[in-house]
Amino acid sequence: MIQQAIQYPALITHLKGFSNYTWLHYCDGRKLLLAKSLGYFEKRLPGFFRIHKTAMINPHYVTDLQAPPGHKMAGSITLKGEIKLPVSRRRWHEVVDPITIAMLKSPASFQAASASDQPETIQPVPDSVEPATHNRKQPYKHVWIVMADEMKAGLVRQLIHEKWPQWWIELFETGTRLQNALPAAVGSDLPAMIILDGSETRSMLTLKSIKESRDYRFIPTLVLSSAGSQDLSQEGYASGANSVIVHPSDLTRFIQVLEKTFRYWLTMAAAPSASAINRPLAA
Length: 283
Fold this sequence. Notes:
Layout: H1 2-5, E1 12-18, E2 21-26, E3 31-34, H2 38-44, E4 49-52, E5 55-57, E6 62-66, E7 75-79, E8 83-87, H3 89-104, E9 141-146, H4 150-163, E10 167-172, H5 175-181, E11 191-197, H6 203-212, E12 221-226, H7 230-238, E13 243-247, H8 251-268, H9 274-277
Parallel strand pairs: 9-10, 9-11, 11-12, 12-13
Antiparallel strand pairs: 1-2, 1-5, 2-3, 4-5, 6-7, 7-8
Protein name: Response regulator
Keywords: Phosphoprotein
Pfam families: LytTR (PF04397)
């Protein structure tokens, strides 16, 4: 029971303890009471932060930090859903920096998102891209993901970060933004895999553009489809998708399906190298 409750930490927003019992709060609104102390879960959820003797939080759900207003007063943290929790004065300086870093990586700020209200325009995917200079030293492989649902985007980011930290995740709110970002990504910055949310209106157009491009058609591209979307599955394969993944609406099962999918594509499938992506097809 306990292991099942914490099998997917990305689903847990925070924990509240009292005596030898702990309430687990999940991102879909569920709560679960377990006969274990908060300290028990602190040892088993290393990515979480103990902010108070009665509370522990998943930093990926933090939306705001309020410093202690006085020398002997507690600070506070606000989670998604306007959940406000106290941060003890003693723990404030221990957690404020790592939580701030986690907030900067939060999926609430989609990569390549524009602050402008101007309409989006799709740039055609070119047949060739000039090399550019890159400063990143880490040997990350990149996976680019279009995910319109912020909650699911957060779960995907946390899942990959926990299980496969060597992969660098780029989240895009729309297929248009992913498509517009491709020309600037060359060499090791090119995605080794692309995942498109089939519910996003322009995902199929993005898929077709990728698969019609000489430079990007070798990138494994997956489409996520909700259960019952048979037409989307057919359109995805007809447009060149390497796989169409059917996922349930339940968040726990959604994570389970994605974990199996990522385990195959990130650890067993042989993704092409950046040089192979730009290599022309043999005549």
